[in-house]
Amino acid sequence: MMESKTELSVKGDQPAANADKVKRFNEAVKPLIEGIEGVSISVNSVLGAGDPYQTISDVTTLDDASTPVSIEHTEGTVMMIDFWATWCPPCQKPMQHNQDMLKENAEKWGDKVKIIGLSIDKDAETVKNHITNKGWTSPIHYHRAKSNCSDVYKVSGVPHVLIVDTKGKIVFKGHPANRPDLAKDFNDLLEGKTITGAGCEPGGDDKEEKEGEEDSKKATLDDIKTSMTQMDKFKNETRVKLQTDCKEECSAMMRNFLVCTLEASYDSKTESWSQNYMNHRVFVGAQDKLDTVKAKINEAMGEKAGEGGWNFTGINAQFIAR
């Protein structure tokens, strides 16, 4: 249900051109932190528009969750990889659109256009049942499983897509809503044309924000200390109370997730701090149980940022009836 976990995570991103240096760094730092629980240090060579597609490995098919496989690009084909989740409301229309495009253009495209659904769900079985019920069988579906592809491609929210041209170059990275006519994009790429716009610039992204989140806000060290004190309160008091109060309702839910996250950063150029202090609430289940849990959380934490003494940057709240 509502778990408590404290971690130290140090991450950094480098251009794809520094991939060899990044690999050497990660190999050197790995033995230094091995065996230390809750500590991770990693640097990734982030791939984006203009970079060659790097094969995504360690994903699984929906029929065999135990055997890792890879998503490879075949020269001469256009490929779109759609990072999504069954519990993500904004992901549903794009996935339906993927199904419709492939069905409408099946004769014209044949095997020259491949649309791949890459789910970040907790398990593959949930994804399999969902796409079967929806009839989304034309895209090729995979489960992210243990793959590090979200870090390599810096996918921090869903839906998020990569479009790869016939020569294996990434030509777009970002939210699918920023490509209003994907079918035309695929046709243009098959004809050797280029596509332009946000998310198509080399090394760029369309900067789409995660659903329900806001940009980090400027903060002082005292602000960050206050947020950390509140996180201790959430961990030791609020979380414990809600676990007891919501145990019956959450035990019957498909997904129940309540967590506070704090990301603090220092900009050496402006000599200033900023923080992104978020409260994530994701629950999937029967409507009556959702209503009960939502009321209890609102009573304990306040419905909006700032209520009840909490100074969240924002709240990502998803209560999905199933």
What report would you give on this structure?
The chain has 322 residues and is of the alpha/beta class. It has three domains: 7-44, no CATH class; 47-190, 3-Layer(aba) Sandwich (Glutaredoxin); 217-321, no CATH class. The protein is 32% helix and 28% strand. The chain contains nine helices and 13 strands. The chain has helices at residues 19-33, 89-104, 106-109, 124-134, 149-152, 182-190, 221-245, 247-250, 287-301, and strands at 8-15, 39-46, 56-61, 69-71, 78-84, 113-119, 140-143, 160-164, 170-174, 217-219, 255-267, 272-285, 314-321. Strands 4-3-7-6-5-8-9 form a seven-stranded mixed sheet. Strands 10, 11, 12 and 13 form a four-stranded mixed sheet that branches. A two-stranded parallel sheet has the order 1-2. Strand 8 and strand 9 (170-174) form a beta hairpin. The longest helix is centred in the last third of the chain and has 25 residues, at 221-245. The two termini are 18 Å apart. Mean pLDDT is 87; it is low at 207-215.
